[in-house]
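README: folding subset

This subset contains proteins for which both the sequence and a predicted structure token string are available. Records are stored as plain text. Below is the entry for GPI mannosyltransferase 2 (497 residues), shown exactly as it appears on disk.
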Amino acid sequence: MAPPLAGVVRLAAASRVLVLSLSLLARLLFRPYDTSASLSPPCLSSSPSAASSPPTNLSAAVSSLAVWDGVHFARSAECGYEYEQSFAFLPLLPASIALLARSLFAPLVPVLGYRAVLVLSGYVLNNVTFVAAAAYFYRLSVLILKDRKAAYRASVLFCFNPASVFYSSLYSESLYALFSLGGLFYLFSGANTVAAIMLALSGSARSNGALNAGYFCFQALLQAYDAAVRKKRPLFAIQALVAAALRTIFIFLPFFAFQAYAYLNICVHGSSEELRPWCKTKVPLLYGFIQSHYWGVGFLRYFQVKQLPNFLLASPVLSLAVYSIIHYTKMLHQLFRTTSIHMQIITALEESSVESCKGSDDMTVSRSELSTGSTNKTQGNSKVKQRKSIATEKASATFYDTMSANQNIKEIQDEGSILLLPFVLHLAFMTFTAFFVMHVQVSTRFLSASPPIYWAAGHILASPNCSSRRWSYLICVYFIAYILLGSLLFSNFYPFT
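--- output ---
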């Protein structure tokens, strides 16, 4: 493991310890605003949780750690999807914590009770997955930024991001970040199958995970252009577009499968005599109906004077997101002015093939090491080292061939890369949605897994300008203040984001 990556993992683990400690301390020092989270009515249908032990003070204390949306995730894991509005919480987190509670943490059920074990499983799962997500964030940042120091700075900011409390509680942010960032890393590394699986899982954690299909579309456009223009093989271009379409469908599949499950349970096999309004629509999607009907989500529907405090609460992350979009848009504009798009596409595809080649070579070396070590350790090690050097030389030769074929690659890397474009477009769409459509205070966690925010913030922190130093101070104050506020308010059931 490279030292910077190990450092990111240690910082991510330390940040989780810090946030959990602050949250538990806040629970001890202050009384929760809403104590109804400790109530646990029995499931509407028979459930394995009925055999759990009677609640104790310890089990009640653990169960009360599920606050806000965590109550709904725990309820879905315990009882399934009982109510129409419960389908707003996608199934990956409830299914994961139910699996952990019935396997790894099953011995604790007689002691704490099933519900408390579900909550405990969620906390353990989300804090562990956040550490893995931080590792993928660093590796993805190295691929895109081509700068280990910049990637490390951005990763440190991600480890202590303003929405940290959500990554250490019973929310789906950690799982989404893990599969979203991991999927993007494998996508830009050339491992398309693994990338498609992980991005599909991100769509079963949060609904906006389906938007990650756009990265596959971007990659397909690059490949199709290269095949049609440079290689003069239009069939290869069509093949790339068809493959991207299939992967896009695969990424959307978990979300729409869950909507179909909701339709069958409520519209087809539901107990209500009258069909719900969304069941009668041409495209019966329950998720959009829940957001609009129960929570008033819609275009400009949140633009009210009484919501001004929530806009102020979301203003720091929205400002940073807008700055990130402007900063990288200017960088891409300068890049397009100095280097042809044709050359940028070739460079991006060549670098992706080099990363894919390096990954396959490393795997070949590892397999060879395992197979030869069991028969003749000394001789095997020497052969593996020889193989490794040959593989490294091949990867290096491929890389230097690419460098010689394109004399402007170094300049392109210094100014940026066309690979930044899908990240900027994605962040722009998410920012527009957060400001004009959603409950705006959710922006802090809604945008918290978007890499350009931390890349741009890290760029500000590294800038020597006096004005940048002032902004650096404000960014640090913002991150620290929201970690402290989140740990205090959110854990005690006070409104935060």
